[in-house]
Amino acid sequence: QAPHLLVDGRFKCSDPYIHCSLHNNLHWSMHTSTQAAHKLPDDWEMQCKDQVMCLSHYIKMFSVPPKLIINADQTGVCLIPAGNKSWAPTGAKQIATMAKEKCQFTLMVALSTMGDVLPFQSIHKGKMVSAL
Predict the structure, then answer these.
(1) Threshold 0.70, pTM exceeds
(2) With CB atoms 3.0 to 4.6 Å apart as the test, which of 5, 32, 49, 113 could cross-link to 66 if both were Cys?
(3) Is the separation of the CB atoms in 121 and 107 below 8 Å?
């Protein structure tokens, strides 16, 4: 049976209370895992200009109609968020997080230069047969 404080659902712990309790009683503090940030190549502007010139050449050379010129992009859709922060003993040097454990799928969106929005495509990948 639940303690009387929990029966009617009014008992709540505030974030500051939990933070102080973890810090004062367990001597834990919030830590952030680290990883290198993705960096653009030094010549990214030139690569973009080269790509535009290449596309322009092929569109003109093969008379590609505007409705067949499609821009698409992909984004990860996170079903279960996995953060890069965790509670650990104060002073700990190595902090393991579940940041690499992802439950997500890739969503691909595309549209043509005519303004047509193509149907979204969801891309799922699993490592086990039961996940596919």
Answers:
(1) no
(2) 113
(3) yes
